[in-house]
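Record format v2
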Amino acid sequence: MDRLKFATVWLGGCSGCHMSFMDLDEWLFDLAQVADVVFSPVVDTKEYPEGVDVCLVEGAVANEDNLEMILQVRRRTKVLVAFGDCAITGNVTAMRNPLGKPELVLERAYLDPSNLRPRIPQEAGIIPALLPRVLPIQEVVPMDHYLPGCPPPAARIKAFLQELIAGRTPQLNGCNISFG
Amino acid sequence: MAAKVFTIDGQQITATEGQTVLDAAQDAGIAIPTLCHLDGVMDVGACRLCLVEIAGLNKLVPACVTKVTDGMVVTTNSERLQRYRRMIVELLFTERNHICAVCVSNGHCELQSLAMTLGMDHVRYDYTFPKCAVDPTHRLFGIDHNRCVLCGRCVRVCWYIEGAGTKNFSGRGTQSRIVSDLNAPWGNSRTCTSCGKCVQACPTGALFSKGAAVAEMEKDRGKLEYIVTAREKKQWIV
């Protein structure tokens, strides 16, 4: 069998889902037996490659970089998995949405709580502009699977990936689809 | 009291006169999902999660306010009902800002566990992200409207168990909110007895005890059962 081209992507999230992925500990060796990690925050590839088989996407779509990235990832990936609550619901990343447009959010984050030279960071080409509102990933591109949890526990990730690697359609149920 | 014999999911069941479909089903060990129902408090059929099919009837009826009749044939878990229930829960999630990860009731929430039971691994509708207030003015408790599902359990315990009549609904549709008195800050309420029954009755983290951090708010329904049993059966549960 061809080795699986496996990737993980980190959008608007806290990286907790990736931490949980690292909690797979020695099972990562088993994964490495059957899959090549071709793109991930933990590997040093700069560009998302073509023809990826499976990709876990952590985080919501919060800024222009996230948006560009997820569109590219969707085009280049066969099986796309919404990885964790931020990707699926917007979760903590989307807590800014009720505040309104990005200017108001930035004011709330950088000006309101600051008393020493308050300033909104604006570096064109370096800091990506915020989208009008944070979007759960399935509002932007169609997803193939959902792996909820904040973060999804390692055992849940393992149960999910084992099914996928075995060529079956993962059917999470019971406590394995709990949010939070 | 005449017994009623009826069929529920192909199983013959005997119910007592005046018993609801939900009550009789629960007695027979058949689980029907509920949210606005709370043992000991009158039912209003608000959440529509306990909708069931009755043979010969075109519309679906809420099991919690439908009395059993002789020969009734009830279906509690058809494919259509499962579809509608999941839809209802998804819409509840889009209507407010339910963020399980940072909620006081994470892990002890009826909405969260309903979503799990009904197989909701994502929401197919756009979230509305409404701007909702938090009222922390009460000395002991707080209300976070971001997490409220408007089940009305707090209103019913306040009026019918405590008899204080502090909690009520205001507004219509998406503007509906639970209020204290005539929309006063809860801490200024002259009718609230600070009994805390509303907090214990709340299925989510909308009503909480102050000082509870993420996942620390566990509701104690036992206190409610204690009062209701004492009142109705004159028995004091130890």
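Chain A has six helices and seven strands.
The interface with chain B takes residues 82, 85, 88-92, 94-95, 97-100, 133, 136, 138-139, 143, 146, 148, 150, 172-175, 177-180 of chain A (CB under 8 Å).
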